[in-house]
Design goal:
There is one protein chain. 59% of the residues lie in helices and 5% in strands. The protein is mainly α. The strands form three sheets. It has a two-stranded antiparallel sheet with strand order 1-6. A two-stranded antiparallel sheet has the order 2-3. A hairpin with a 4-residue loop joins strand 4 (390-394) and strand 5. Helix 4 (97-109) crosses helix 5 (118-146), helix 4 (97-109) crosses helix 6 (155-179) and helix 12 packs antiparallel against helix 13 (306-316). The longest helix is centred in the first third of the chain and has 29 residues, at 46-74. The two termini are 35 Å apart.
Amino acid sequence: MMNRFRKWLYKPKRSDPQLLAQFYYADEELNQVAAELDSLDGRKDPQRCTLLVSQFRSCQDNVLNIINQIMDVCIPQDRAPRDFCVKFPEEIRHDNLAGQLWFGAECLAAGSIIMNRELESMAMRPLAKELTRSLEDVRGALRDQALRDLSTYTEKMREALRHFDVLFAEFELSYVSAMVPVKSPREYYVQQEVIVLFCETVERALDFGYLTQDMIDDYEPALMFTIPRLAIVCGSTDQAGLEAAPSATREKIRSRFHGSHDLIHRLFVCISGVADQLQTNYASDLRSILKTLFEVMATKPETDDKEKLKKVTQSLRSAALEDCALCQETLSSSELAAKTRDGDLEDPPEWVPDEACGFCTACKAPFTVIRRKHHCRSCGKIFCSRCSAHSAPLPRYGQVKPVRVCTHCYVFHVTPFYSDKAGI
């Protein structure tokens, strides 16, 4: 009774901009959705269950976002390191990842298993349980403080936040590593060496006048094809050049060609072939490398030049995130209720026509006789087999059995968990 009275008397105003006030109402909304979800029999009303899960994830994203802001203010020097995130695929680095991690931890802690990841699920379960307990402690401490003093962060709160941050970082690495391929340390270091080579190549090209600084600052699209070819030339000449060979060897090599023009043409064809192979087989990595290169080599922008800063990210970023209708969808409570009352399943997404897509939506690798096209049943876009290697049920479309989905949808938009006791 006293707690109810204190809550009524001291609860913050909804319009209060302070972080603890924002957290209080975000957490309250999350509890309301969770209560309705707990009281619902998912087997009797799978559509309503799916819609509530979507709303529940959105509320989790909001709560975690505010907690993260509080940690930045409260324990800025004690944040857990997250350098491992650079090893994640580009399509995984998304603002909604934290909410998905929380959802995954709760499913694992409740005894559910990630589809086709039984061993990894059992290994992560103790950590998931500890993480969910820690998060409950944090939420309780923040709620309690919100009813006391919105401008004060106690040492108890700070300690709870430090413990949670460490556990969350550990679970993030474990969960993402189980869901999608993550770069090994060697693969990551090789990528860094390639970035250094590309940067040195651009510096040489600027010195010789092959490129201009304006081309770099404007993120000229043609450079995405030019720089890898220049890098191959620079890397080859650094190792060994034709002029470094003995005189007899040089003459023997030159005799194979009709003249200097023929030699240069053959070299150009070979270099272009190697560069095309890089862009075909390592499209996602190459895009990430070029994005870093543009950020490093561009001159310092003016403060009012923010749009130019975004240009490289927009041109190099994965379309699986940029054009994802599921990421952009927002459903209010009234819309959710209306859909439930109608009792109709959502129409599956329209498939992108085969002839309209020549590249994988995620990694941009071109389709060939060997690299076939595959449609994601969740978003309808076209991917290569590597970027759509997952399967999961889609109850919102009436798909009870697991079907093919892309990596982005698998991590952010479907529920790849099952339980021997009850469906999740």
